[in-house]
Amino acid sequence: MGKIFYRIAVPLVRLFIPKLKVEWEVPFDGEPCIFVANHERAIGPLEMAACFPLRSESHIWIYAAPLSRKTTPDYVRNDHWWDENSRLALLWSAVIPPLVSLILPPILRSVPHIPVYHDGRAVSAIKESLRLLQDGKNVVIFPEMTTGYRQPDPEKMNEGWLMLLPMYARRAGKPLKVWPVRLDLENKKMRIRAPFVMEENIPLRDQTPDLSRKVLRGIFDLP
């Protein structure tokens, strides 16, 4: 049912999201990899799930809470879906979460995805990602951090997923490429930047600041 629903939902989603022109900085080499993209609220995941050229070969990291109808309302309330200083904030809090809980979970569950947990099960996303990468699939991650309502922080990102780079290199005997994806809604473009890899023989902790800068520059179009 999930795959059928996904095939039906994709054309419908495309009708309601911005149409972005895809621009590759360099041609894709076909190697399994990680694509990191800016979230742009719900638009980023929708664009990557419905319009990304390699969507059929890619699995998206999705936070587990909105995958369940039971946990979606609290997720929506805690994820800054509306301006908490708005005069209508109480109304939105009462109306939007239950409505979203009916619509969002079945859509997200139909997308090729990897559930991401913020508890003791967090390691499961790493294990599943490694398995898929070794099977030749790609992984899509949205690493940005937010500072409030619709405010991404261009100087910080979630870095836990970086452990995939040395783990994959050890298992596959080759580096894992990271392709930053800039979803530029203003200019209606999906800019896929040239990939980068971590340096061999240097501990990940020593490279993390540089790797983070490369990701943030790519997804936020920074100089």
Fold blueprint:
Blueprint lengths: L1 H15 L4 E4 L8 E5 L5 H8 L7 E6 L8 H7 L10 H22 L2 E4 L6 H12 L3 E4 L2 E5 L2 E7 L6 H9 L4 E8 L4 E4 L11 H17 L3
Parallel strand pairs: 1-9, 2-5, 2-8, 3-4, 3-5
Antiparallel strand pairs: 6-7, 8-9
Helix pairs in contact: 1-2, 1-4, 3-4, 5-6
Largest sheet: 7 strands, mixed
Count of separate DSSP helical elements: 7
Radius of gyration, taken over Cα atoms and rounded to an integer in Å: 18 Å
Share in helix: 40-55%
Based on helices, strands and strand pairing, what is the structural class? alpha/beta
Domain unit count: 1
Low-confidence stretches: none
H and E order? HEEHEHHEHEEEHEEH
Shape: globular
- Write down how many β-strands occur, each being a DSSP E stretch of 2 or more residues: 9
Q: Provide mean pLDDT, rounded.
A: 89
Name the strands of the widest sheet in spatial order. Answer: 1-9-8-2-5-3-4
Give the strand content: 15-25%
Distance between the termini: 44 Å
